[in-house]
Amino acid sequence: MTIYFDKETKIFHLQTNQSSYLFQVVNNDYLAHLYWGKRVRSTSMPKSLRYIDRGFSGNPNKEDRTFSLDTLPQEYPAYGHTDFRSPAVHIETADGGRITDLRYVSHEILPGKRRLEGLPATYVEDTSEADTLKVSMLDEVTQLHVTLIYTVYATRNAITRAVHVENKGEDTLGLEKVASMSVDFRETDFEMINLPGAHVRERDIERAPLRRGMQSVESRRGSSSHHQNPFIALVREETTETTGEVYGFSLVYSGNFKAEVEVDQTCQSRVIMGINDFDFKWLLKPAETFQTPEVVMVYTDQGLNDMSRMYHDLYGRRLARGKHRDAERPVLINNWEATYFDFNEDKILTIADKAKDTGVELFVLDDGWFGKRDDDFTSLGDWFVYDEKLPSGLKTLAEKINKMGMQFGLWFEPEMVSPESELYKAHPDWCLHVPNRRRSESRNQLVLDFSRPDVCDEMIQRVTAILESAPISYVKWDMNRNMTEIGSHYWPKEQQKEVAHRYMLGLYRVMETITAKFPEILFESCSGGGGRFDPGMLYYMPQTWTSDNTDAISRLRIQYGTSLVYPISSMGSHVSEVPNHQVGRITPLETRGHVAMDGNLGYELDVTKLSDEEISGIKTQVDLYKSIRQTIQYGTFYRLVSPFETGNYGSIHVSETKDKAVFIYVHTLAEANGLFKAVKLQGLDPETDYCVLETNDVYSGDSLMHIGLNVPYANHDFKSTLYRLEAVK
């Protein structure tokens, strides 16, 4: 059992193998947060709640001026009754009232973990893996019933939170904000880490001290976005990769989100995370329910690397699903940067024929194979084969590539429509739009209205028809613009603020249907690269195209930042040609290969234009990667050298049994008369001796971790090193 309730003190104790989370029913059935941090044995703890009369903090009970919701560390705060801080839930009643007074009613403790209706979420394969607590709260005036859902993963040191809302009253309610979780810390001695960025510059690591007032990261773009990620962490000033306290918050959702941290008058810190309340309102009719996405919370006092390993393990094993979850991912070649739209069947077959000699296992046909698609002005939505380019059809092309010994994959963008398309001409109201307003285009396309069941059904049918027509082993599911004019012809005016979330529910239904129907296909999500790299997508598609920026040196920061939350098995990483198409940089093939091997290796270049020496180099890379990919994709990952701090990069992947490891180091800029570098490794068995296969040197595990491993002297820019370590028998 991981969840305990003390009937005398009314304290709930949620206990993982490393952490404890406690809250209590206090004064007239309010829920007060007590503690979250390093594991404690029981609820017999120093009295943590203290009260004092604080000016300008109102009192629910006028007889007790020391008790105020404005200063109480609450478990799920509501708006309107003496708490002036940001609420987790905010409603509007039929008569225009906006007050909510949630009180504890009851609770139940259940083995295992239930699915969240219509939403992606972590799961269990056996009920013994986790326990779930459901705490029922009620606003008596409106009869709004709120259930706080906690799941405790005992051995994975994670707690998930979500909220289920039901209208048990007689009037329709307007949910204007309903967050997935809230935590009130009774201190402010934290720094906040988040992952900001932009298209082709995703997931930088930003870290700054908390200040009084409100700090938030959010997306209002209709997706989790390139610009922020649905993740934050609170850390201590002294926290590093290997030491110090970390509180991680990660939202399993792919749409508009908000993570906010408010430091109040008494220097308490309130963290709230969930669906963004900007331009959101959900009408909840009598007997109707609303389910929030879940937030995955982890705590460690062993630094950021430890937090990352917790997320990697949970998301890699209990969020990603299907046969590909634990399977080695194939080495692929994608024709996008090789040809863009300018290809025909002969060109594709020529590239595939050349690639097969390098050991590549999967050929991916990217944008341009459908409708009359010669550029990005037309044909999205017309998911039928472009006969002029592929006169023999997809089936024949795929079979020819299969005969070369490779699998065949295909690019889709099912959520979009081109104004120049047969689909748009037939159904101009099927895109997101607002009457009497322009339909703003981005990349010459509009967003299909996935809040509509009929649009979702049509896309399921069209994508299914293609996937059934040919031996397709892989799908790259792209989404290349964010939402504007968020409105729907399908929904009445009073429900227009529901459209953005209904879109996500529709998209999740489409993805669930298609991925369940084609379990043999490996699906990779994409949104202009990493614009929707979030836990929600990983539930349906176990890997994501990490960024449209294929430059190896740019990728050091992108992949390092991504690894803060997301497992290596989820990161697509390709070798492209030089000068690089995004930044014009010329980087050695070896370095491009080593950086791409730090994720799921692929290639994105025209191999028919390469020299024999370059083809031989790619073959060597592919052979090397196949020998280490189990360790790379499913080993334990440690960040060693930060490109954000040093400009250089270092990482190590250690096998589960610690008998193998792969060390990667990239020195970006050489210096005249430069310094020798050694890197302290992590994760090895200190009692084991390891042979570095590339040098045939043998070192003890403890010396590699405490003294360090020498890396070759950097005598030119962008020099990389990959060392394989094997335990000496």
Walk me through the structure.
The chain has 729 residues and is of the alpha+beta class. Helix content is 19%, strand content 29%. It has 12 helices and 39 strands. Strands 6, 7, 8, 9, 12, 13, 15, 16, 20 and 21 form a 10-stranded antiparallel sheet that branches. It has an 8-stranded parallel β-barrel with strand order 22-23-24-27-28-29-30-31, surrounded by 5 helices. The model has no long low-confidence stretch (mean pLDDT 97).
* First and last CA, distance: 40 Å
E-strand count: 39
Anisotropy-based shape: globular
Overall SS class: alpha+beta
Mean pLDDT: 97
Largest sheet: 10 strands, antiparallel
Summarize the structure.
By secondary structure, the chain is α+β, with helices and mostly antiparallel strands.
List the helices and strands and how they pair.
Blueprint: E1 3-6, E2 11-15, E3 19-26, E4 30-38, E5 89-92, E6 103-111, E7 130-139, E8 144-153, E9 158-167, E10 173-178, E11 181-185, E12 191-194, E13 206-209, E14 213-219, E15 231-235, E16 246-251, E17 257-263, E18 269-275, E19 282-284, E20 289-291, E21 295-300, H1 304-318, E22 332-334, H2 336-339, H3 345-356, E23 362-365, H4 393-403, E24 407-412, E25 416-417, H5 422-426, E26 446-447, H6 453-469, E27 474-477, H7 499-517, E28 522-525, H8 535-540, E29 543-545, H9 552-562, E30 571-576, H10 589-596, E31 600-604, H11 612-634, E32 636-641, E33 649-654, E34 660-667, E35 677-679, E36 689-692, E37 697-700, H12 701-706, E38 709-711, E39 719-727
Parallel strand pairs: 22-23, 22-31, 23-24, 24-27, 27-28, 28-29, 29-30, 30-31
Antiparallel strand pairs: 1-2, 2-3, 3-4, 5-10, 6-7, 7-8, 8-9, 9-20, 9-21, 10-19, 11-18, 12-13, 12-15, 14-17, 15-16, 16-21, 17-18, 25-26, 32-33, 33-34, 34-39, 35-38, 36-37, 36-39
